[in-house]
Amino acid sequence: MSYLSVKAESILFPMLYDNTDLQVLVDTASELLNAPVRFSPDNRIELAICSKNYPEGEMIRIKKMLSKDSHGFNTFMGVLSKRKENLIPFYSPATEDDYARVFSNVYIGERYFGNITIPGTNQELENMDMELVQTIARIIAISCSIDGVWGYNLNEQNLFKMILCGKIKTLMELSVMVSDSEKYHGKQYRLLAAKGRKSEENALITSALLRIFPDSLTAEEQGIIYTLVDLTEKEIRTYQIENLKESAKVLQADILIGCRFCNILNSNIQRSYLCSHPIFKKQPRGTLFYFDDHREYALFLRSNLETDGYLDYCNPALIEMIRWDQQQNSEYYKTLKQYIKNNFEIGKTAEALATHKNTILYRLKKIEEKWNLSCRDANQLFSIQLTMRLLKYFEQDD
Questions:
Q1: How many CB atoms lie within 10 A of CB 148?
Q2: 161 exposed, middle or buried (CB, 10 Å; 0-12, 13-18, 19+)?
Q3: Which residues, 6 or more positions from 373, have their beta carbon under 8 angstroms from its beta carbon?
């Protein structure tokens, strides 16, 4: 811990004990940093608390820039794209289109309060003490937590996490916890799950999700961030899907969009479906997934299939083919899988496997002769696809 960080704690913590106004904390932080500071609660520029020396023209420019950028999502992504890996807070150098700044999220554990921004020139900021910035961000977060302001609505946030973890399961239990349980009736939801490569990234992932879905409830459980999206008035929009894809790519997080459901008390069941999805058993690749594409995974989970027992439900001929491929270094299973994936089109299958059409035709004929498997038979096709999905779910198929 740097000398200035220790000094900041010795000055700012007593101010917390005295319940000092947040404006005074920000002004004091600015003096410690010898630079202007802006704290944007819940990422909302209209609520920004700026130090006395914060450039007035800077605020005008930012508001103009954000007028075309809903909740600052594009600005946030632009800042993230320039950060150095694992550097939180981080320095974002100036470009032709953007100004130099030091940026830090303000959060405690899984509760997110907003961000602080320190503008300046490249020369002024590139050698700034990042430990000092992080200390100031944490103290501002503590101040917000003490006052019970900004961040998530704490009562609703705690309620959501209790539902998510299965601590509240009935309408009776819900009505005891809230003054108006009717507000949760007759609604449609989707639960989103997101997981990054490192737990240190979770605050950034949360920040991105709340910029895409403002006022949504979010909670972290066992390293996965869950966001409850209210779809009562409208489904997730196309631009929100694009923002999710960009967030996944920039933050190298896998994001899974769950199925629609109509009872908030079912959030726990939906969570069990999402957290058991195969994508969360691997290193995140920065991809957006849809649970709607794999609804059968919910059936697999509820059937209590064990790792050894699922083979009983697989097509034995297909399992035999896979073993043959492993022994002979052949590609019959891979060919069959691509053939189905490409809607039984020989040309597209050959292109996907970088081989000749005649080779595909030969392999399909061999599959039918040797293992008696044909995609022309509806029952066999169902059995083949069920087996492929079981193998995917139990991580036996890449």
A1: 10
A2: buried
A3: 315, 317, 318, 321, 336, 367, 380, 384
Residue with tokens 């106004």: 21
Report the alpha-carbon distance of residue 375 to residue 383 in Å, rounded: 10
pLDDT digits (tens, 9 = 90+) for 126-182: 888 889 999 999 999 898 887 665 554 445 667 788 888 888 888 877 776 676 777
Q: Residue 176 CB: number of other CB atoms within 10 A?
A: 10
- pLDDT digits over 205-255, tens only? 988 998 899 888 888 888 899 999 999 888 999 999 999 999 999 999 999
Residue 107 tokens read as 């959060």
Cα–Cα nearest to 313, from 294, 333, 296, 291: 296
Q: Give CA–CA dist 215/224, Å, rounded.
A: 19
Name the residue among 69, 114, 68, 110 with its Cα closest to residue 207: 114
C-beta of residue 268 within 8 angstroms of C-beta of residue 163: yes
Q: Give the whole-angstrom CA distance, residue 224 versus residue 359.
A: 44
